[in-house]
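Task: encode each sequence below as structure tokens.

Item 1
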Amino acid sequence: MTVKELSEGIREGKWTSADLVRKYLKCIAENDEKYNSIAEINANALFEARALDEELKQSGMRSPLHGIPVLLKDNIDVKGMHTTAGSYALSDLIAEEDAFITRKLKEAGAVILGKTNLSEFAYFMSRQDMPSGYSSLNGQVIHPFTPGLDPSGSSTGSAVSVAAGLIPFSIGTETDGSLMSPSIANGIVSIKPTIGLVSRNGILPISHIQDTAGPMATCVEDIALILQEIAGKDENDPATNTCDIKDYTQQLHTNCFGMKIGVFLKEETEEKRKAIQQAMDILKECGAEVIEIEMPETMLDESEALKHEFKYGLNLYLSNHRSQCKTLADIIQFNRDHAERCLKYGQDLLEDSDSLSGTLKEKEYILKRLELEERSHELLDGTMDKYNLHCILSVGNRPQSNLSPISGNPCMCLPVEKPDTDHFNPFSYYLMAKAYNEDVLIHIAYTLQAKL
């Protein structure tokens, strides 16, 4: 069931939050052995649900998320629970405070049911063919529909738990593709917000420039409801100083008159052409102007910049948390000391990052990051300005561009077909827009979802 349906059931007295917590705990207990998507369960979830049920009787619902269980990726702080990023080296780290996004969810009345597994260090550990969804702490996450299929990462457990029906929605994070890629691979919906719409405070980082958290669910309506609750300014995150929140729930309609959408295909396959034509027909029928466009470049390489930012961000994060590992260097040495468990796929990205200063003052880093910022906006915003577009749309079995994560602009994915365990085709629409235009993405995605 969707978040909206579960929320309506709570409001109408069909079930309680405690009922939902029991339901999803049972579902996890009976099914997650097949998927390995769950890292940890919140021991107090049922008590918290009961308190929310009592509050509902006394003063009503806080929000549409009141009493709804959620799982958070295990690089997001939840007070009293582990934050490990899947690393055996950080298995002793217990958060002493909630991340800002965790606090926002709790204030909205959501119940933190637990944490999800991920690709270790959000897939920033090794180039040596480390599988998506693998970590030294908890092992391999398995695709819910086709066990041999890549479940993708790094928000692997967050995507799999939603796709498998273990939870109505989850929170993942993205630096470059880690919300979009697993969502596409598992046939669910997600949005990567503009950098600054959702606080990064309390999230174990890769890049202070590109990191963000975002919702993962089975439908566009739920994404709108969740994004409405987690967006907001945070005095401890300077990126949110320009936060521009809109009413995303007002975009759940199919009137697209006055909108202009550009579509592009990276490879001209019959499957892609058919899917994009279907989308064009739907959007035109709903009043939008739809044109085919060309993009000179859709992928940029930010790997060298991320190496500088990872050491800086991780050391700062560890300095504010209690763990046997105080620095990236400590983690690297711990992994060497426990090589049989920790270095199955190596740690060359960790070592490359630790060889740098971690101060962000190197000339090559500063110039590269400035170049990436300028070029990504030139390619994405420049293309939108050239054609006077509200949104850019493509289709594929993976994210069709990384310009949004590098520029900080939002992007969103929506399955072309509803997932089917008998015939699963990980194929999704991928949408990009200008900064703080999440409302546009939600509007277009809802229109496609409603008409597919």
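Item 2
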Amino acid sequence: MKKVIALLSISALLLGGCKKFLDVNKDPNNPTDVQPSLLLSPIEMNISDNIAGGFSALLIHNYLQNIAPNQANPGIANYQLFNADVNGDWTMYYVTCLNNLKILNQKAEATESWNYAAVAKILSAYVLGNATDLWGDIPYSKAFDKNNFLVAYDSQEEIYKTIQSLLNNALVDISKNAGVKPGSDDYFYKGDMVAWRKLAYSLKARYFMHLTKAPGYTAAVQSDSALAALQNGMTANTDDWKFTYEGNASTENIWYYTFLPVTTYVLNETIVETLKGRLDPRLSKMVKPAVNSGTYVGRRVGTPPSGSLLNYSYLGDFYGAAASSNYIFNNSEAIFLKAEAVFRKSGFAAAQPIYVSGINSHLHKLGIDTTSVAALAYVASRPLTAVNGIQRIIEEKAVANFLNLETFNDWRRTGFPALTKVDGALSDIPRRLLYPESETQSNEQAQQAGVTLTSRVWWDVQ
């Protein structure tokens, strides 16, 4: 008996030693399974840096004439783009964000961590919404099926239904008020589920209003849906969805990086002259005077490059400092969504006070006294009328949403802010992104055929 026990003990030691020996190829720094709290932080960081502020966002702000490289044409500023240029963005959307959000949601639901599940769904809706608005029809319902090598695309209409479903299910998860809440791992709201709930409703309103001209939808119905959602949405600037950067080495604001001298990016003439021409009191907060002249000077795309970047204006510190915040969805947008919906339903007089509230919310955010002579004069100079209502609402929303991808969606569906193509343009102003080369070569689909930068996505009706 003692011999048997001894043999079993030796076997256990040998097996244990063998197991430990075989584990040497496991990298402890790259685990195959992690808890939800360890997934959430890097996902949120990537959403701020690489979705809201990534290369695709850089493209869009070239097209919207918010930024301009101090370089000669051709380039992305005059609409030169190749399919391979957006390979990295597609990977960021699908592999880094959507796939990890799916894993986060599955883990959270399996452990009944409903608050984490809600956050995963809300973030998924946002990332998916950006993806479809940039590319139109895209894969999602079958995108993460490991048994499929060719993944069919969902129509953009189906994607929009999925977005609303994700947000509705997130609200159900939050209402359960059960399971552990995120804390410091949540860079956005520190686990404040009331704030996440407001964001979910505000996002619902955003995506309702995208479909004001979509085939089979009406502006009146979409406005009603948005107004209903906004009753539970953001109500103050403290509700802003933003990523605040520490500002230390390697933790700087993504827009600070964008305007480092090595990139040659400066502010575009269009945005600078727009703010100057309106005598907008936000000019000095949003734009820095050019160092060499002490005046506000944006670069005009297509003109010869300047010998010094100091001849142009850069971002003001509110948006461009190392420790600034990246605003992904702010309260001002929620107010302008309401103003637009009310204008469409009830006219300019009903929308006017809401519209003014939207302007003032952004002025206040920038530290401008809304009762100052300059602020009052500015608001008085830009009243709504029956004719200009949508134009003024969207123009002011664009300023309040500076450096936000949403301005591209508003421009496509309303035509405002009014833009003309740049000098030396290779086409009309782009209305979407090309499908990436990595996708057209490995997952060929009918929707990819014939797509150009000026092709329109489903809801972008002429």
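Check on item 2: The first strand starts at residue 67 and ends at 69. The beta strands are 67-69, 241-244, 265-267, 325-329.
End of task.
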